[in-house]
Structure formats: structure tokens, C-alpha cells
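sry for the spam today, last one i promise. C-alpha cells for design, 594 residues
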């Protein structure tokens, strides 16, 4: 399948043509101005043409693309993908364009007034040029819609939040791509890794990718928050607005424009370009030296905070013009992080070979945290998303029985002995639907700083590690903040006290289990599902309140019975009582395991 990808801006148009993962053409029309723009074309084998073109705006540039491709015999295209900056809370994945989708994207313009309009215009123009081809929008924000409320909520008046003020995060396509690429390079499933992705380009952001899902990112409501950027400020005290208005008489529009366009490296040094800043710093320019220190310090703080947010980190991946190219910036950022097991190897860091989308590791021997450098490939990722969406087989509408899990524990042999006495064997009680699983006759008590949960069920058989699964409400009853995790992902989980008739233990392993579907290979194939993918499941509750559960992990294991597991909070929210079947929502595209 050949996919043409557009990244349209008010001053430039970038486009790429992909055959599978191979980029067969890359073009840009840059710096639109009266009389024309700059042009650059590259084929699969390297540069083709650079110079000037007569196109003075986006419409003229897009109109020229069919001719550019036809000249090179590349005009056979199967689909068009478009980068969209903002998809609000509603676009959790790519969207096939029709009038209704365009209207929904238009309605989001107030959230991204600088970016979405040109992208939307590009989308409209391309739909007119290729009316018979599927057009698909891929949103920078979608990847971050897995962020929990604690990461997305600003502590501001309810009326503001009702108006839509919340954190979104951007660069999602880049973070998703480099996290997948890093996992591939490390030879481990993305769903087993806690990765901090650091995209340092003209725009810059960091993202905590926990077991495949973004859980926080440094950009917020707008792409202004977070790291220091080329011309954007990054984090700044919101109190500055009042101060600037009272003391300098600046209005909101002027402050906002300065924070977007006249801040960051440009404000600190006069140049938004890190190469200039590094050169000047090396010549003794104190302002450039401060800018570099401040830039690295801000990134380092985010690395520390995201390691804390995920209870540890397995890999850091650097990308973007600065992340890819500046060995000294990577070094500056990583220095001082050995306390959390992150150590750079100077030789590997100096000149990593990034050709052919390589993702070399540059950590020192003995570093617990892997450090990966790779070029980002947002257009490639968009092409992949378009392909995945269009090639996905229609899902057979099969029912998925929903099972509601109350709080329970899985115990290790050692925990059983400590709680019930030496050589104790649990008594196998009622069997569960999954073959070989049962509820024990015994019970335990959970205790936290706020309270106790009595008579908690124990599920067998025994496991290598003790795992305690509670609902979010239970975690408040205990007074312990339990993270949402997949079963078995217990690194960095909090401790809780378990009380049995013969003893008490303090053990980690307290989680809110991430919702998931168990199924076997035959039924997975019949439903068009694959192991590790995330799907949406629609459930109609008995009280008429249905819910669509997003980000539901599919686990395909031979011998298991198809069943969706949710906890009691989720069941209550959906009004579920008694037996109910869910249904896979067909439009959601796969999140492949790396
Ligand atoms: P991007 O937006 O990803 O194209 O990144 C642009 C930024 O990368 C600019 O600040 C460039 O100065 C910076 N950059 C590109 N190459 C280098 C390099 N070799 N050393 C330092 N910064 C670089």
C-alpha cells in the first residue's frame, strides 16, 4: 500500500510517500512568501533537487504535489495521511475523514489556533485533489489520551475545567514511534518497558511511556508547557501573566505571542538554534552557557520526575534535532543521574550511527537504564497508522463475556507460609472460569495507613510473586496510591500489609489491575484481535447506562476462555450487575507489540 503523508503548516508543507515502511519520496515547500518558497526533494536513494518554487502559499504548494509525483512516475497512491496537531479528548486514534470528522476537527480549533487551521486546510485541499482516496487524520494528542486524570488535570476552578482546560500533551506520534523503536532495539516487548522519550527539536517534550502507554508528558494544554524550546518558554509561573500585565502593561495576546515566538533559546541568547548556542557557549558567551545549562537542567528534572511517576525507568530514548545530534547536550542531561542507574558511555555517545533508522544504545557497561538514540520518523508512523487502519480486517461482532473482579490477592509460596504457617496448603474452593484457576477457602486482611479491607479473596494457583489487586476506591480506603498495572508488572509498586491467622507480611505488588481481555488464539483470530493490542469494548449495563472502555489490553494465551476482566469501580460506572457481554468497537486500530 502506498501512503502519501502530509504535514501542513502556515509557512511550509512537508510530504512523504511510503511503500510499506520504505520512504520512496520526501518533499518540502518551505518559507512561503510573496513570489515563492524554497523547495527540497529527496528520493529513496538520496537528494534529488533543491531550489526555489513559485508557490506562495499552502494551497498552491499542495496543488503542485500531484505534478511533482507524476513527473517521477509516483502518482499511483492508495491513501493520504494527514498530521493533525490537536484531536482533543475525542480522537483516541486515527480518523477516516468525512464531513462529520472535519466538523469535529474544526470545533477543536480553539485548542490549537496556531496549528490545526493550516493542517485542516491541507486536509480539505487534498480531499479535493484526491476525492476517491481514503484520507486519514492522525493526531499528535491521541497517544497521550491514556494519561490518568492526575496527570491531565489542572487544579483550577471547575468552570475552567468544564470549558476544556486540561493537559493534553503533543508530539505523540514521535513519542510513540521512538518508544516502539527503542523497544525493538532492546529486543523487549514495549509492554514490558518503562521508557522516557525525550524529543528535543525546535519544539521539545518528554513523555513517560509506561508499558506501552503514555502516562504523562511535559507539554500540557498547549505545546508551551514543559521543556525550554527554540522560541517557546516551557514551564513558567502562571502568576507571571498578572505581573506582566500590571508592570509592563502587556495584554494576553502580546504575552502569549512572546511565550510562543520570542522566548526559549531565542530569548536567552538571540538564536533559537542550538548549534549557534553551543558554538557561542564554547567561545565563552555567558548567556549561551546559561541557556545550555538551563536547557539541560529542565530536561534532567523531567527525567527524574518521570522515573518517579513510573516507579523506575528501563530506558531513555533521545530524538529530535538536538536529541539526535548533540552529544554534549545528551551528556549534560545524563550527568548526575547515576543515582537512578543511568550512566552514559562517552565513546558510544560521541557519534552514534543513526543511518537507516538505527537505534544504537549509548549507555555505559553496568548502567541499569538503557539509553537509546534514534531519529524520529513521524511521517513513517503516520503512514503505519493509516495502513493499520485501512488494512484492519472487519471484526466479527462476537460477544465478549464481562467478568467483574472483586479485590483479591495472588500469593507466593513464601507469603502463604508467612500468613498461614509453615507447610500450610491453601484449600482449593470454587473453580473460576479460566481453566486451572480457583478461589481458596481462606481469606486475608489488607491494611494500609488509612484503613483495613477484611476477608479478601485469595486466588490460586500460587504465583512466583505476591500480587494484590484492588479497585481505585479500595486504594483510597487503604490510603495507598496503587498504580494501574497489567498483571505481573510489579516493578516499583507500593507495599501493603497482609494479615493472616499465623502472621503478617509487608509486601509490594499492590495494583489496580488494568482492564484486559483473555482469549485463545482461535477466538482471537475469529475476532481479528492479536496479543498485546489495545481495543475499545462497548458494554451495555443492566441499568441502561452503557460505557465504552478504552485501552483494553488483549492477552492471547492458548487454553484460556474469552472473557473481559474489569474491577468493581468500572462495573459500577457501567451499571453492570449479573451477566453481561461486551463488544469490540470496530474502528480502533492496533497498537502493535514492539
Ligand atoms: P528539529 O526541530 O527536530 O529539526 O530540531 C532542530 C534543532 O536541532 C535546532 O535547535 C538545531 O540547532 C538542533 N540541531 C541540529 N543539529 C544539531 C547539532 N549537530 N548539534 C546541536 N544541535 C543541533
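last one done:
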Amino acid at each position: 500500500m502506498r501512503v502519501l503523508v502530509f504535514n501542513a503548516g502556515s509557512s511550509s508543507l512537508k510530504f512523504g510517500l511510503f511503500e510499506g515502511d520504505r520512504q520512496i519520496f520526501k518533499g518540502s515547500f518551505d518559507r512561503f512568501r510573496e513570489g515563492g518558497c524554497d523547495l527540497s526533494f529527496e528520493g529513496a536513494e538520496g537528494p534529488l533537487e533543491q531550489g526555489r518554487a513559485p508557490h506562495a502559499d499552502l494551497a498552491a504548494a499542495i496543488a503542485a504535489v500531484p505534478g511533482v509525483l507524476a513527473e517521477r512516475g509516483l502518482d499511483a497512491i492508495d491513501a493520504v495521511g494527514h498530521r493533525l496537531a490537536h484531536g482533543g479528548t475525542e480522537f483516541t486514534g486515527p480518523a477516516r475523514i468525512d464531513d462529520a470528522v472535519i466538523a469535529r476537527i474544526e470545533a477543536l480549533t480553539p485548542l490549537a489556533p496556531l496549528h490545526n487551521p493550516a493542517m485542516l486546510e491541507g486536509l480539505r485541499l487534498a480531499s479535493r485533489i484526491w476525492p476517491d482516496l481514503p484520507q486519514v487524520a492522525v493526531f499528535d494528542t491521541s497517544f497521550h489520551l491514556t494519561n490518568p486524570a492526575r496527570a491531565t488535570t489542572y487544579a483550577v476552578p471547575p468552570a475552567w475545567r468544564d470549558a476544556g482546560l486540561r493537559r493534553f500533551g503533543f508530539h505523540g506520534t514521535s513519542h510513540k514511534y521512538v518508544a516502539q523503536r527503542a523497544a525493538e532495539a532492546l529486543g523487549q516487548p514495549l509492554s514490558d518497558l518503562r521508557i522516557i522519550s525525550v524529543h528535543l527539536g525546535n519544539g521539545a517534550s518528554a513523555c513517560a511511556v509506561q508499558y506501552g502507554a503514555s502516562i504523562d508528558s511535559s507539554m500540557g494544554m498547549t505545546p508551551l508547557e514543559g521543556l525550554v524550546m527554540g522560541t517557546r518558554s516551557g514551564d513558567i509561573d502562571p502568576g507571571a501573566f498578572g505581573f506582566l500585565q500590571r508592570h509592563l502593561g502587556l495584554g494576553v495576546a502580546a504575552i502569549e505571542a512572546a511565550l510562543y515566538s520570542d522566548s526559549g533559546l531565542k530569548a536567552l541568547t538571540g538564536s533559537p538554534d542550538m548549534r549557534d548556542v553551543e558554538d557561542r557557549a564554547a567561545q565563552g558567551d555567558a548567556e549561551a552557557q546559561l541557556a545550555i545549562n538551563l536547557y539541560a537542567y529542565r530536561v534532567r528534572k523531567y527525567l527524574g520526575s518521570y522515573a518517579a511517576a513510573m516507579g523506575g525507568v528501563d530506558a531513555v530514548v533521545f530524538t529530535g534535532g538536538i536529541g539526535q545530534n548533540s552529544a554534549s547536550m545528551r551528556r549534560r542531561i545524563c550527568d548526575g543521574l547515576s543515582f537512578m542507574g543511568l550512566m552514559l558511555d562517552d565513546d558510544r555517545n560521541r557519534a552514534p550511527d543513526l543511518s537507516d533508522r538505527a537505534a544504537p544504545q549509548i549507555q555505559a557497561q553496568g548502567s541499569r537504564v538503557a539509553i537509546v538514540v534514534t531519529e524520529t520518523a513521524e511521517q513513517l508512523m503516520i503512514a503505519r497508522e493509516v495502513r493499520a487502519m485501512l488494512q484492519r480486517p472487519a471484526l466479527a461482532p462476537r460477544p465478549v463475556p464481562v467478568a467483574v473482579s472483586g479485590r483479591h490477592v495472588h500469593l507466593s509460596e513464601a507469603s502463604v507460609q508467612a500468613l498461614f504457617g509453615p507447610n500450610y496448603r491453601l484449600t482449593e474452593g470454587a473453580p473460576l472460569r479460566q481453566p486451572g484457576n480457583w478461589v481458596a477457602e481462606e481469606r486475608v486482611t489488607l491494611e494500609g495507613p488509612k484503613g483495613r479491607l477484611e476477608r479478601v479473596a485469595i486466588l490460586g494457583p500460587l504465583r512466583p510473586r505476591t500480587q494484590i489487586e484492588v479497585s481505585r476506591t479500595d486504594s483510597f480506603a487503604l490510603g495507598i496510591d496503587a498504580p494501574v498495572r497489567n498483571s505481573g508488572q510489579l516493578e516499583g509498586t507500593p507495599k501493603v500489609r497482609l494479615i493472616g491467622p499465623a502472621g503478617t507480611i509487608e509486601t509490594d505488588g499492590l495494583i489496580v489491575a488494568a482492564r484486559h481481555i483473555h482469549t485463545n488464539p482461535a477466538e482471537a483470530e475469529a475476532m481479528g484481535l492479536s496479543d498485546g493490542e489495545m481495543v475499545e469494548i462497548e458494554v451495555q449495563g443492566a441499568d441502561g447506562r452503557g460505557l465504552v472502555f478504552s485501552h483494553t489490553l488483549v492477552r492471547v494465551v492458548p487454553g484460556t476462555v474469552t472473557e473481559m476482566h474489569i474491577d468493581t469501580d468500572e462495573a459500577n460506572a457501567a451499571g453492570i450487575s449479573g451477566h453481561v457481554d461486551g463488544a469490540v468497537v470496530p474502528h480502533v486500530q492496533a497498537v502493535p507489540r514492539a
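The two ends are 21 Å apart (CA to CA). ok im logging off now
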